[in-house]
Predict the structure.
Amino acid sequence: MEFSIRKMKEVIKEETEKRVSKEAAEEFSQDLEVHGHGVAMKALDFTRADGRITVRAEDIRKAINEVNN
């Protein structure tokens, strides 16, 4: 999965009201990919633990809470 550099620049600029270098946007994109992968894998653990094959929003919320804490 890859987040577009343009979108990453837009997100950072909206939050900071500063110009954003391509390299900063690339770093942000890479971090989101790594973090997103961790959340997705943890959510899958919750899904499987409940005997389901569909990842639900509740699985994602639990995963985000666990990964961030």
Summary: Residues 10 and 17 are 10 Å apart (CA to CA). Helices lie at 5-16, 22-49, 57-68.
